Amino acid sequence: MARRHMGLAAALVLGAQMGVTQPGAAPASVGTTVTGVQLVQRGDVPPGPATAPRPPAPSRLDPAVRDAGARLAAPFRLGNADGSRSCPFALKAEPAGPGLAVDFDRPACAIIAFSAQVVAWLPDPSGSLRLLNAQGRTVAEFTEGANGSFEALREGDGVYFLTNPSAADEDTEIKVDEVVGEWDLARQAGTPICRWTLLDQPATNGKGKALAIATGCDPALLRFGPVAWDIEGGNILVRGDTDAAVIRFARQEDGGWARTPERGRPLLMNRP
User: Fold this and answer.
1) Stated pTM of the model
2) Which residues does 176 contact at the CB level (< 8 Å), separation at least 6?
């Protein structure tokens, strides 16, 4: 009888190790020990340590974009139309955030409110350049003008310029007496639509020198309300009755002047 009981006990242990449950007996659970043997049910092997998801690869700029950026990267001066607010502002060729790096003194540029949003820039296939925020959205788009400078019109804000510092040094090369006097304005050479006179006396609005307009000017040209003129960055600026209303003229090889940037509609200024 004792020998029979020993055989039954051995069968129970072997059956438990093989996952066999005796009728009426509760199944062995993971971690249950039977006669010193650890029982592990099939399919209950604990998983290994979780694999951390790979961080997204940093965005890579198209080589053509980087090459265009390298050509445009340079120190500039960011300023508003009348020059009352400006600060040094450099475009770099190194990738940064959603585009290429910018380098400027943020406290110094705080006088230009939108600069607080700018974290990068990108060249555009059209030849313009865009200042970007952290999400890659355009804060201001500057179109190419004369002497390596760029101009942006921000709706409800005003006109801003990225001026090449070397061009700004050309101010002394243009004397007031060279440009004082009468000028004809035309959309195409030889067909004047207006005449105005640049005067060597202060403007009534206190911003530059006075300007007199002859009768018979094209009304469309006068919509921005020209009231004053000045010399800045080697250009002639004709200012309207608001800070956003400014036309910038760049000197041409023939001695005349032309609006810059052109924006699809040329405006020439030549001596009568």
Assistant:
1) 0.50
2) 200, 209, 231
